[in-house]
Each structure stands twice: as structure tokens, then as C-alpha cells.
Design brief:
single chain, alpha/beta, Isopropylmalate Dehydrogenase, ten-stranded mixed β-sheet, two-stranded antiparallel sheet, 12 helices, 12 strands, binds 3-isopropylmalic acid, binds magnesium ion
Length: 341
């Protein structure tokens, strides 16, 4: 009986997590859930964004499912303050989750929900592979005497392993995104990715793009891309940009993998303080994150396929939360998926 560590988090996190657990229960009835506070909720209760106990529960689980962390209550611009996001950074680092996979596959039923023209996004099937435990997020930083700094560091080994993840995920083409005309880390990145390509994946086409050009091409010709592999912060930015190909952040799941232990599965969206508490958040990103957990951590691709098909059918029959132009509540959207199962 696999145990799922459940971290609903803050804002709409608990709302979408509840709807998703209901759906997951219907797909796989042999799962148990071990629920813990994380983010702002954990700061309020324990003074830290992720307790040792919650971390241990995650380490002992088969997969970690997270809602979303953060909110205005805990926002601070003070250097060194306790912040909800630290829970996420601790999980990513302690579980060794160096590879963040974010698939962007606009569903035909939602082509018109994207701000981009339908003929641009039709047939887009893009995976962003974001390095998740290095770069600016984990480098040394500080503020003193009217001066602040953040450092970006990458080692050959860190680049090699994320490059492999990218090539393994690709059928025909990998686009490696860097800023090699400016940054030393990017020049190292480019040379390591090129070597891994020629040594291990010569059958895959590799192209290098500078991040600014990649940002432009992503909206000008999104079908150009199959797999984008890039460092932590470029991946953070490009994946929010790519989310608009699908019309709503409310649709997008992600998987963070790489360690020997469990993976972490979470919506790409945040806690949406503007709609938190109203019960109208789109639970599909959370539900599809569970779908990725079934596929990537629990070895149940068969169930993942069933779940994906159920989401697709619910949308095709017109089920819509407000973010994608409808009026269903979070619970009703969950029910619409359940009905298809
Ligand atoms: C993400 C989020 C986080 C990140 C934030 C909440 C710190 O934007 O997962 O993309 O930047 O990694
Ligand atoms: Mg982000």
C-alpha cells in the first residue's frame, strides 16, 4: 500500500488538493495519505516552512503531492526572513530533485482559451526540463552596505545529469537554452550538453538557443520545440511563458525527479490569493500532477492513461472552471472528472 505524502500548503492549495485526492482515490484505491503542513501554514504553526517531521514523512513516502505554497500574509522583502517558498527549496534539495518536468500540451477543447492564435498552438507538445537544485536559487547570496549579490554556479556533473534527462525525454529534438554570449555558467553548460549529445545521444537533434531568442520563439513558433532543457531560473521564466500556450496556469502539472527517493508532484500555478477561499480554483493542474505521480513514481502508467483520458473527456464535454471560461466550482470540476472515470 504506497503512502503519498500530502502537502496541501496555502491559498488554493488545500482546495485543489482535496479535489485531486478524491479523484485519485477513485483511480487507485490502494493509496494511503500522510498529510502535513507546509509553507505559510507551517510557518504559522511551527515557525518554519517545512518541519523535520514533514520532511521525514516525505522521504518515507512513495510520492509527494503538493498543492501550493505562499501568500501575501507571509510576503516580505526582508533579506534572510522566513518564507513559505523555503519549504519548497528544502524539499527539492533534500530529496535531490534536480529535474523538473513541465509538459505543455494544449488540449484541443481549450485552443480558444489561449491568448495566442489557434493556428500557432495547434499541435504543440512541449516539455520544459528545468534544472531545479542549482544555479541562482542555491548559490551564495547576501546583502550588506547598500549592495546585494546572488551567485550562479554549475558543475559539470550537474549539467551532465540534467542534459541526460532532457535527451532521454526527447524523441527527436532537444533545444538547450542558455546565455552563452554573457555567462560563464552558460558557456560550460553549452560545452557539456554538446559533449553528452555527441557521446550518448547522437540520434537526437540538438540545437542551442540564447534565452532571449528562446523566449521570443516560444510565442512566435511554439511548435518548433519538443524538449527544452535549461538552467533553474531560465526554466522558471520560460515555463510561465509556455503556460500561456495552454490558456491557463490552472491546467499545468509538474514533476520533480532525480533522487533515489520519491518524486514531488505539484501544479505549476501558485496559491492564487485573489481567488483563495472561494472554491473556484481549477483543480486540473493538481489532478494532472497526480497523473504524473502515477506515471513517474508509482509505476502505474495504465492508471495515468485512464486519468488523462477522463480529464480530456470532461473538458471535451464542456466542463470549465472560471479561469478557462466556465462557471464550475473546484468540487464540480473534480466531479466532472470522476464522472468520466
Ligand atoms: C515555480 C515557482 C517557484 C520557483 C517559486 C514559488 C519560488 O515559481 O515552481 O516555478 O521559482 O521555483
Ligand atoms: Mg515559477
Amino acid at each position: 500500500m504506497p503512502t503519498i505524502a500530502l502537502l496541501p500548503g496555502d491559498g488554493i492549495g488545500p482546495e485543489v488538493a482535496a479535489a485531486a485526492v478524491q479523484v485519485l482515490d477513485a483511480v487507485a484505491d490502494d493509496l494511503t495519505y500522510d498529510e502535513h503542513l507546509a509553507g505559510g501554514a507551517a510557518i504559522d504553526a511551527h515557525g518554519t516552512a517545512l518541519t523535520d517531521e514533514a520532511l521525514a514523512a516525505c522521504q518515507a513516502s512513495a510520492a509527494v503531492l503538493l498543492g501550493a505554497l505562499g501568500g501575501p500574509k507571509w510576503d516580505t522583502n526582508e533579506s534572510g526572513a522566513v518564507r513559505p517558498e523555503q519549504g519548497l527549496f528544502r524539499l527539492r534539495a533534500e530529496l535531490g530533485l534536480y529535474a523538473n518536468l513541465r509538459p505543455f500540451r494544449p488540449l484541443p477543447a481549450l485552443y480558444d482559451a489561449s491568448p495566442l492564435k489557434r493556428e500557432l498552438i495547434e499541435g504543440v507538445d512541449l516539455l520544459v526540463v528545468r534544472e531545479l537544485t542549482g544555479g541562482l536559487y542555491y548559490g551564495e547570496r547576501g546583502t550588506s552596505d547598500g549592495r546585494a549579490y546572488d551567485t550562479m554556479v554549475y558543475t559539470v556533473a550537474e549539467i551532465e545529469r540534467i542534459a541526460r534527462t532532457g535527451f532521454q525525454a526527447a524523441k527527436s529534438r532537444v533545444t538547450s537554452v542558455d546565455k552563452a554570449n554573457v555567462l560563464d555558467t552558460s558557456r560550460l553548460w553549452r560545452s557539456v550538453v554538446t559533449r553528452i549529445h555527441s557521446e550518448e545521444f547522437p540520434h537526437i537533434e540538438l540545437e542551442h538557443l540564447l534565452v532571449d531568442a528562446a523566449a521570443m520563439r516560444l510565442v512566435a513558433a511554439p511548435r518548433h520545440f519538443e524538449v527544452i532543457v535549461t538552467e533553474n531560473m531560465f526554466g522558471d521564466i520560460l515555463s510561465d511563458e509556455a503556460s500561456m500556450l495552454t490558456g491557463s496556469l490552472g491546467m499545468l502539472p509538474s514533476a520533480s525527479l532525480g533522487g533515489d527517493g520519491p518524486g514531488l508532484f505539484e501544479p505549476v500555478h501558485g496559491t492564487a490569493p485573489d481567488i483563495a477561499g472561494q472554491g473556484i480554483a481549477n483543480p486540473l493542474a493538481a489532478i494532472l500532477s497526480f497523473e504524473m505521480a502515477l506515471r513517474w513514481s508509482l509505476g502505474r502508467a495504465d492508471l495515468a492513461d485512464r486519468l488523462y483520458a477522463a480529464v480530456d473527456r470532461a473538458l471535451a464535454e464542456g466542463a470549465r472552471t472560471p479561469d478557462i471560461g466556465g462557471a464550475l466550482t473546484t468540487a464540480q470540476m473534480g466531479d466532472a472528472v470522476l464522472a468520466q472515470l
